[in-house]
Amino acid sequence: AVGVSTLDFKNKFVESGIVPEVIAALDPSVSFYAAYVAANGSTTLLTPGTALNPSAGEKPQPVEFSVEGLNNATNITASTRYLIYLLDADAPARNDPSSRNERHFLAGNYSVTAGVNSTVLPTAQRLTVPTSQFAPFTPFSEPQPQANTGVHRFIMALYTQPEKFNTAGFESVGMDVSTTRWNLSAWRTQLGLGPAIGATFFTIDTGASN
Hints:
Low-confidence stretches: none
CATH class: Alpha Beta
Structural class: mainly beta
Protein name: Phosphatidylethanolamine-binding protein
Shape: globular
Organism: Apodospora peruviana
Oligomer: single chain
């Protein structure tokens, strides 16, 4: 696998319409990756805009997260922790995204460890959570958009985690467990987050919706 520049990530988000339709702006300081299981069973790097086909056996559940260029991000130390979400920007349908955004995953306490790199992109550092600390606020739910609701854009984003959440859950600041109509800007304010330092996305084409 070959890495993707932060400029290419940025451009893909604009080309897809995610910026400014879903996210006002994205100026990534790092290259953020996920890996998924392809139809042949191999773990594969997900690059921005990858089209996945679950009915052909491709599995949208990320099996790994990784990051390149962390030294380009500000206020990062060896002890910094990170949080990651996955959402559907086009729920329930691309031409009627009345449930935007629908959250499919949210978890914190990710960190990088020197020498622990991605299994699919050796130049990237793997983001991991100790098993004892892995307690997703929103456990992963399989993206299963209904047929004939258009091309759904599934966004994953990486944020530096405020230190207070190293030992407290997001509910400690009143975050709602509801997963639909998730207002990202209000959520960022609630948790005290800066802009995403990286993001990527994949699409699932369910057929006609225009």
